[in-house]
Write a structure and sequence with these properties.
Blueprint lengths: L3 H11 L40 E3 L17 H10 L13 H11 L3 E2 L1 E6 L5 E6 L2 E6 L2 E8 L7 H9 L1 E6 L5 H6 L10 H5 L3 E2 L8 E2 L4 E13 L9 E13 L13 H4 L2 E3 L5 E3 L2 E3 L6 H14 L8
Parallel strand pairs: 1-14
Antiparallel strand pairs: 2-12, 3-4, 3-7, 5-6, 6-11, 7-10, 8-9, 10-11, 12-13
The protein binds flavin mononucleotide (FMN).
Flavin mononucleotide (FMN) binds next to strand 4, strand 6 and helix 4.
InterPro entries: Flavin_Rdtase-like_dom, Split_barrel_FMN-bd
Pfam family, one: Flavin_Reduct
Keywords: Flavoprotein, FMN
Amino acid sequence: MWTRTQRCWHFLQSSTAITSGPSSHCRSISTTHPNFNSTKLNSSLPPFSPPTGFRLTQPPNPEWDLGQGLKPGSPLNDSWAEGMKQGWKTWSTENTPGRDTYKLLTSAVIPRPIAFVSTISEDGVPNLAPMSYFSVLSHDPPLLSVSLLLSPRKPKDTRENIKSTKEFTVNIISEPFVEAANACSVEAPARIDEWLVSGLTPEASTHVKPPRVKESAVGLECELYDFKDVAPPGAEKPTTTIVLGLIKYIHIHKAVLAEDGNTVDPSKLRPVARLGGATFARLGEGFDLSRLTWKSSKEQIEKLHSTQPENIPSR
Ligand SMILES: Cc1cc2nc3c(=O)[nH]c(=O)nc-3n(C[C@H](O)[C@H](O)[C@H](O)COP(=O)(O)O)c2cc1C
């Protein structure tokens, strides 16, 4: 049996994924393109600015009315319309190498929430890893999904642990400990306990064995609901595992609750999301849009429906 210190020391000796020092800080000046070389970070960027919190503004087109589509007349909308004139670039996923499809999809479908998944192996080794192929699927039943890439080299420990123990917790990552969470993405052998790598604190769960992350303001205790290995069409070997989790308990730090005590205030949660490459995002601004009721908009919609020509082009 390894002691905490031995396990940690061995990890530090064997890890090649964590790099430090000036040689790794060589990404050149600010770019909006995602950095897919995750070992190189840009030290010439401005420092993180904690006071920038989430605030509500007016929506982009406050005067927008039914049927107006991309409303012209604002600089943003007009430049968007200009961009549309450039047309499309199209990839057939069948003919695109997986690595390129990964880059396209993970930079295009953004921002993605990140599940910080805590599991325990059958042998009792705790595991912690971030996963951004993640979403809440429904609230009744309360289900979430996490997808785990199934590398032929080594299935993810998270997958193996969920498969064998049928339990996990999903924790939401906030700005103050994002580096600690990111460090858990190191491709370490199964015997490595990423809690030691992160320095984060395990908090006992109510219903499942895997602990929650104490520093995470949102912790979801999950039981395995469904587990499916999926393969590309025509291929036999699965390349991804889709896990559905049934959320049994929801734990929220009181400090991030909104005034009503029953919802979360985004400006307090300061959640971190994943963009393409090694880029993370945080919340800046938001806006409210009221939901249309059929009752109040029926007349206008019926009128549009009767006057608009068929405008869906076909192949
Ligand atoms: C922000 C972030 C999101 C990630 N999302 C996923 C994901 O959705 N699925 C996946 O298989 N790996 C994902 N990874 C990579 C895993 O975290 C990484 O492979 C990790 O070593 C898996 O740990 P495990 O083997 O202990 O389960 C992500 C990494 C980061 C940094």
